[in-house]
Amino acid sequence: MESTNGLVTDAEIKSFFDSAPPLRDRVGNGSARRVVCVTSGGTTVPLEQRCVRYIDNFSSGHRGATSTEGSCQPYCRSLPEDPLLECFEFTNGSNVQGCSSRSPVKTSFYNHFEYLQILQMIAISMRNLGPHAMFYLAAAVSDFYVPWKDMAEHKIQSASGPLDMRLVQAPKMLSVLRKEWAPMAFCISFKLETDSKILLEKADMALKKYKMHMVVANELVTRNEEVIVVTADKKIPVCRDKTQPGSDVENPLIELLVEKHSAHIKDADT
Ligand code: PAZ
Q1: Predicted local confidence at residue 106, as pLDDT
Q2: N or C terminus: which one in the chain shows less Cβ crowding within 10 Å?
Q3: pLDDT tens figures, 175-214
């Protein structure tokens, strides 16, 4: 069984892993470490390969920032947009250091291509966490984009007359996430509409079509006040506690999701 040429054999690899103690904090029980991938903010659609112009959307990234308070840059969303603050960077603990180059405190945003590439990379790397992984997909990802091969390389010239450009429909990656990238993970997507009459129907459709565990439905104007969590058998309204100044809707929302994620892990373990 031992290799003679210094290379490790398949049998040696198998024997090593078979005899190793279970990995702590990772596998096999409900208290194992959970990891949540949160996407937030808008994505841009570039119009030129050497991008000068792009299509943007309204999303401020507030949802994701508020939902991840307790992270390494907590409460940054509450800071004023002051260029002076951009001169500081955060280190471990509560130290704040001056930094030589200006680095924005706000999360950077990605274009449509980068967003999906990075999501794929993260999802595949989280696959081993099984049901302990959660995807909280609050980013406003464009439904339309210009394929790279159809895009002008250089800055589009206004001298060429009116701009006539075809945007194609973006492939829906949520089903691929569920089926291939991280099939055991707990997946929550968001659905935004401006027309309240179609919101719940669209959220329901997304739940079924992409096999999400939950879809958080929200309307543009009230998105910071209330959301409705759509599951296979319930529609659960979640509201900001208006009696508490400074309260937000993300707090009760996250409490609900933690509870549902625990149930998901328990189901998968039994
Ligand atoms: O980023 P933000 O806090 O301004 O807004 C949050 C949101 C409306 C982008 C998010 O809650 C959401 O619904 N995201 C999915 C949007 C969509 O339907 O593509």
Answers
A1: 40
A2: C
A3: 999 999 999 999 999 999 999 999 999 999 999 999 999 9
Question: Which CATH number covers residue 199?
Answer: 3.40.50.10300
Secondary structure class of 73 (helix, strand, coil): coil
Quick one: CA dihedral 117, 110, 238, 203, positive or negative? negative
* CA distances in angstroms from 206 to 56, 173, 199, listed in the order given: 23, 12, 11
DSSP secondary structure letter of residue 234: -
pTM higher than 0.95 for the full model?
Answer: no
Domain count, the chain: 1
- Cα distance between residue 128 and residue 130, in whole Å: 5
CB distance 173 to 88 below 8 Å: no
What is the predicted pLDDT for the residue at 264?
A: 98
Instruction: Identify the H or E element spanning 117.
Output: helix 112-125
Q: Is the CB of 62 under 6 A from ligand 1?
A: yes
Residue 85: per-residue pLDDT: 58
| pLDDT at residue 96, as a whole number | 45
Closest atom of ligand 1 to 41 CA is 1
Report, as ranges of residue numbers, the positions in the chain whose pLDDT lies below 70: 1-4, 22-31, 70-77, 79-109
- Ligand 1 within 6 A of CB of 66: no
Residue 46 Cβ inside 6 Å of ligand 1? The answer reads no
Q: Does a structural domain hold residue 122?
A: yes
- Is residue 97 domain-resident? no
Residue 111 CA to ligand 1 centre (angstroms): 16
Range of the domain at 55: 24-78+108-269
Q: Give the model's pLDDT for residue 145.
A: 94
Residue 124 CA to ligand 1 centre (angstroms): 24
